[in-house]
Amino acid sequence: MQEILEILFKATPNLTPKLKIVAKVILDNPNLVATTSMRALAGRAGVTPPTMIRLATALGFENYESFKQVFQTSINQQNFEDRANWLQLTSATDGIASVVHEIAESSLENTKKFFQELDLDAVSKAADIILAAPNVYIVAAGGVHWIASYLYYVGKMAIPQMRLPRTSGSGLIEGLIPVKEGDVVLAMAYHPYARHGIEASEFALSRGARLIYLTDSKAAPLASKAEVLILQKTTSPQFFPSMVSVMAAIETLISVIVAQSGDSAIRSIADYSEIRKKGEFYIT
Length: 284
Known about the structure:
Blueprint: H1 2-11, H2 17-28, H3 31-35, H4 38-45, H5 49-58, H6 64-77, H7 80-94, H8 96-117, H9 120-132, E1 136-139, H10 144-158, E2 162-163, H11 172-175, E3 184-189, H12 195-206, E4 210-215, E5 228-231, H13 244-260, H14 263-278
Parallel strand pairs: 1-2, 1-3, 3-4, 4-5
Helix pairs in contact: 2-5, 7-8, 8-13, 9-13, 10-13
């Protein structure tokens, strides 16, 4: 990203007036290229979206998406401290409203991308594999483990064979000792990839498990070994990866599983509902 910014800085004097405006916005706020949509960034600069495309091509890129990808890769490589510092600088210069606006833009963009690029056949295949598996182990480490807990909490209502190995006490790998051939590992990992989750997934694969993988890139660790790969973008101006599109993926997968399941899933969900009703689990 820094190389592009240097090229842009040197090229600015020779740009058209509108492209100069866009260049200044990008030079002042380079992370915005990664975290906001082209339309939103154009609006911030007071130009039309085609102007953004012209700038990208003027810098030697085939299209705006390839230009944006460089910035997304760069921001993903920044450490937590760098990104937290960016939040404070943005707040100091543009106010809290600007920070919240960028969070909203990136969240909407990530979710939009997920549904636009979603391979329906892949999700359907994942659902069939999960429904037919003797056991389904959800493997996730770090902050993602608690997102996986939601998947387990809701998913087990329809799929009693779901398991969630714990990350505290005994390690993730110990929770996967019972894995056998034919079982499924539903792994979740996003940049920066937590080592414990990757190593636990590798262990399960060595035992003959099938891998369904929710992650952010085809280049993620173990992505090449996945039978089904479901991708979500986690780009965010926040100092930690955004989980908004991850939740969208989880809800989508659970919905497709239930849609493709038979009477047994309906009966299982009904049993949970009845027990919770009798125990006055919810306040109505």
